[in-house]
Design brief:
Structural class: alpha/beta
Number of strands: 9
Order of helices and strands: EHEHEHEHEEHEHHEEH
Strand order of the largest sheet: 3-2-1-4-7-5-8
Helix content: 40-55%
Number of helices: 8
Number of domains: 2
Strand content: 15-25%
Shape: globular
Length: 248
């Protein structure tokens, strides 16, 4: 069950892409979390899900709570089902739905807990990002790697797949303290487990270089809001007792 957080996505939600994907993959289920949208997103989602209710469903939040909480509520809903895998995917489909197959296969084959999509520009891959966002992203990734003492390339790509089990439920049980960098907070919670000797973050988290990722207009993370990201990283360091590593 893949969670798709939605806030005012009525005009750019590609309903056909989701319908085609579940038609081709009978095992796949998308849970759309309507995060208190004020446009016609709710109506669009009801129409989309009515066509294939066994594979497309909606969880409506009473008010806008932000992407972090929408994802958290969606993943917790997935843990209440018999799904073996879950994850979350950006509604704009900057990462195509075809990547889900490859990420699920990698998770199973490597006995991973979490697979992160990574926007790495390599030969044979189509990764299109605005230069400013790319370089800001690289600076952010460096800070995150130092903070976590974990060599992660891309925490913020909106394409994630993970196991759906008791560990998942425990990681998502408490609300995130961050709004923009909850992906990093997930890793911070896993690092807490590593400090207890479980070694989830260091041995069962993998990054998957996407074959395609195309920047879609309408991103809500403005340059001004990037300043808040730094404050959230500091808040994570204080909450989860993280420190800048000399070896990262």
């Amino acid at each position: 069950m893949i969670v798709v957080p939605c806030f005012n996505e009525a005009h750019r939600l590609d309903a056909g892409a989701f319908t085609e994907r579940v038609t081709a993959r009978p095992w796949l289920h998308f849970l759309f979390v309507d995060d208190g949208s004020t446009d016609s997103t709710a109506r669009v989602l009801r129409g989309l899900c009515a066509a294939r209710p066994a594979q497309l469903s909606v969880l409506a939040l009473p008010a806008n709570a932000g992407k972090a909480e929408a994802v958290r509520q969606g993943v917790l809903e997935a843990t209440r089902t018999d799904a073996l895998l879950t994850g979350y995917w950006d509604a704009d489909l900057a990462a195509p739905l075809s990547e889900i197959d490859r990420m699920c296969e990698l998770l199973r084959r490597r006995d991973a807990f979490l697979v992160l999509g990574a926007r790495v520009k390599l030969l044979g891959r189509r990764i299109e990002r605005q230069p400013a966002r790319h370089y800001l992203g690289r600076a952010f990734a460096t800070c995150t790697s130092l903070l976590l003492d974990l060599p992660v390339y891309d925490t913020q790509c909106g394409a994630k797949v993970l196991c759906c089990n008791e560990l998942t439920r425990s990681i998502f049980a408490e609300p995130f303290i961050t709004r923009w960098v909850f992906d990093v907070e997930i890793l911070a919670r896993l690092m807490q487990r590593d400090r207890r000797g479980e070694f989830v973050a260091r041995s069962r988290v993998l990054e998957h270089p996407l074959l395609q990722w195309i920047d879609v207009g309408g991103s809500r993370l403005t340059r001004t809001e990037w300043a808040r990201v730094g404050l959230e990283l500091l808040a994570l360091a204080a909450r989860y007792r993280l420190s800048m590593s000399r070896s990262a």
